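User: Structure tokens for this complex, please. No commentary.
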Amino acid sequence: MQKPIIYLQRPFREEFIAKIKEIAPDYQVNTELSDEELANVEITVGWKKEKELALLNHSNLKWVQAVSAGVDYLPLSEFEKHDILLSNGSGIHAVSISEHIIGTLLAYYRGLNQSTKNQMAKKWDQAGIHYDQLSGKNLLVVGTGHIGKQLSASLESLGVNVYGINTTGRPVDGFIETYSIKNLSKIVEGMDIVVGILPGTEATYHIFNSDIFNHMKASAMFVNVGRGDTVHTKELATALKDQQLAFAALDVFEEEPLPVDSQLWDLENLLITPHISGMTVDFQLKFMNIFLKNLKNYVEDGELVENQVRLKRGY
Amino acid sequence: MQKPIIYLQRPFREEFIAKIKEIAPDYQVNTELSDEELANVEITVGWKKEKELALLNHSNLKWVQAVSAGVDYLPLSEFEKHDILLSNGSGIHAVSISEHIIGTLLAYYRGLNQSTKNQMAKKWDQAGIHYDQLSGKNLLVVGTGHIGKQLSASLESLGVNVYGINTTGRPVDGFIETYSIKNLSKIVEGMDIVVGILPGTEATYHIFNSDIFNHMKASAMFVNVGRGDTVHTKELATALKDQQLAFAALDVFEEEPLPVDSQLWDLENLLITPHISGMTVDFQLKFMNIFLKNLKNYVEDGELVENQVRLKRGY
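Assistant:
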């Protein structure tokens, strides 16, 4: 009888493939797949659209280990129907995204974006530089998962007061106070910085809209590194134009790449980054820290211990 | 007999002037000065070039409270000759400069400078973005004074390994290890980031020169927020062009404003900011925390307790 297959849909270094084989000696590890092998696939690492139908309909798939944190692009209801376990890569990108967020805050507060523009024009303009102090500011993390917790910990010695929002308002370590998402518009009123790190679900669609922006301080900054469609782009553009809030930094967008005719490109008080906040060095090592732990547990008792996604909830 | 005069060469809010009068009731507080009053000046806050000769030659000056941290623009040998005490504003700018430095590090590591340039061209370029992780990096602070200590503390929760350089290599809290300035070229070899926060003295003139840049890693970043002439500008420009080091961020320059024909403006791997790192909110409050403490002690026993400059040493 053929061994069940662990199908790696992304390249990994030989050292990691060796570890997979050591932990799961009864499995075969494939990076390519023939039609005959399809039926034996039990575990897949990564998820490519072009293999989706084949895997769902013709394999013996039991576990999908996604590489990304967000899983809204996966066929969650199909997984549920077929009793397929799903785990994600949440946490891998946490340090990078946290550093990215702090970078955007300080780049704005210390006039670095403005300085870069002035430098291109060979312009020495001290008087025109906007500056402020991060230390002492109130920052609201909307989404208190891996990234939110990492961000909160990283901000600790920078003197920032970090508050959190999650579905129910349940307390989370590292946050001064956490509130329910129901109270978002009320809570942003007292915040100097609002950071969106939400997954894409029906409940979070366009949750950052004109109502929220209208409740924010005119001096406030908004950062989004969650899903692009958690932000109502047009209403944010209007709010920025009208100085309803002072500055925004977006790494994710409703449409990516951001179309060249988007009005966002021209906004002086917006920093656009091209979905790079999660790019991280040593990605394979960080990913394998999750996958190998899950694999060990899976071969022993068929369950996952890290980052299992609740399929109904979507994260 | 006329009261001795505290001469404020910069504007301060009424609340602070009231506090000065409360602490030093036997003094008169002036923001303007007539020729007749000159002889009665005993204390000055701030130092303007146009008043220099008059104060040195015709006043009864005993104490100069400078507003800046660096005092290399002051007539230190004259102060010494006339037994004039000098204190500086070191520490006022520490949080701002520390935030500025961290901002420049993360702006480089997270591709924000590049993104700003791409945004101006409406260019979505994910593949071309340089990214790296600050956490885990080795950072050398050259100059372990107020700012260096603040920087080290702020970096604590960001996972950076902070080393220090000072004159003698004496240990300083918050640094994993401190080394003598004599060993600078050797020590930079192991560092991912080198931050210059040195005062301008004969000993520090052009201390960051081709010898140091040649010893740095090709992947390393250099930041200077100390005095402009601690850097040999031409040799840094050459080192950046030759990729002897990867990136630099300069806030101070040998000539300010940086001349429009400087070759620095065009360097892709350099961030230029126009001497703004020390700009700080609540400046008056931060300054008065130093001055009022000194004033209280000065009127009681003629000595300073905060930030006294050793005139021979120059800081």
